[in-house]
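note to self — DONT lose this again. spent like an hour looking for the file last time. sequence + predicted structure for the chain T wanted, 521 res
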Amino acid sequence: MKMSAGMLTKRYNAAWSRKENWRNLYEQCYQYALPQRNLYDGYWEDGQSGRVKNLQVFDSTAVHGVQRFANRLQSGLFPPDKSWMELFPGTDIPPESQPEVREGLQIISQKFFSLLRQTNFDLAMGEFLLDLSVGTGVMLVQPGDDVQPIRFQSIPQYLVALEEGPQGTVENVYRKMRVAAENIKAIWPDANLPAVLESKIVDAPQEMVNLQESTILNVNDGGYGYYVCYKTSDNETSMLVYRELTISPWIVSRFSKVAGEVMGRGPVISALGDILTLNKAVELLLKNASLNISGVYTAVDDGVLNPQTIRIVPGAVIPVASNGGARGSSLQPLQRAGDLQLTQIVLQDLRMNIKRTLLDDSLPPDNMSARSATEIVERMRELATNLGSAFGRLITETMVPLVRRSMHIMNEAGLISLPLRVNGLEVRVVPVSPLAKAQHLDDIQDAMQWAQISSNLGPIAQSTIKADAVADYVADKLGVPTSLRTSNEERQEVEEQMMQMMQQSQGGQASPEQAAPEQPV
């Protein structure tokens, strides 16, 4: 159902009014942890590019910690140039059809990653995870061209306002857009431009135009309405574009959230108190260090110096009535307070707390040259444990919608034919990234331990082990492709060949009576 421009503007303004409640919190997070991605400081409104944006950052622990947080999550969940998920048949697929469906889905998975390596996915995912460290990551997935079939664009969360749907997931996305006037027709060929925009394209093609983009769920049929509007005056809004979509192009993920809130809260928000304290402590420490280097002095006020011109800065001379008995020395240093050694201890504790919150407390340090495979596995297991519930949210709000949207684009472009739906029942997405494998290791260890114990309990217990099923279970957990494993028909042929060999071997061994030569009578 298409909405009117007036109703759409009301929902747009209401969403942005609610988003303003988060401005102060998110502004501080970006100011001290992600200063280069901070759009809250007037950069977007003023349009000033190239501005130095980290002058208020006196300690870079949070800045480096956020970068390592994003890098560790990307290498653990979406490693570049590697397959980080597989498509498996769901429970609605009959068991007898699952092997055939599995082979077809694996071909689709391989084609998916072949296309993905031609796109900018790895770059966009890195920026997406940086925003996710604050609380909310937003990505736009759209069809591309023949060279880049899918286009991924990480949208700074400053530019979007969100609304949840009936199931508690983010469905409605409202975005601020600023494009050159001459690019409007190229981006939206079906745009219905008002006269004021038509004249602007002719007279001022390079002038930046502010647009309102909205993607809203239609709760009646499950589709989405896509709108692009332009505010022609204070009281009028013109609708440029309206499209009906079957699936939302937006991927919105929250690291964690509080009931009743739409925006997410990430580890940077959890560590914000320590970040602000550390930054202020380092600022005061630097001021104290400058005083120690240059010094502040007292001078006798003998009528020659003007006290109104004296300032307490490094190298200053402050006039005083006396510097001790009998007026004391004419010039002497001012005593200063502060214990630098104690300050260093406090700073170290704050830095460790920030690193721990940003999942940057790896043990042992991962900057060593030689690292064993066991250490890497344990590191991934530790990261998975520290992520906790955030790991499941990353799968359900990031990986699964990302795969579903990408498959939809590939299907519409004729690159694949996927009659099954990626809904968990017909087709399910199974993570096989290093972080997911680390969580599967416990299941593999339990299965292998059970098989080992059963094999030691005698023939009856050994008969309960399905060796081929155990091998398939372990291979699925490790993400081993089916092309490296034998099919059921191939296993049956091997079993029949082994039976024939055993029968021939038994038939070739004659009994002692048969083997003894006949004696002449």
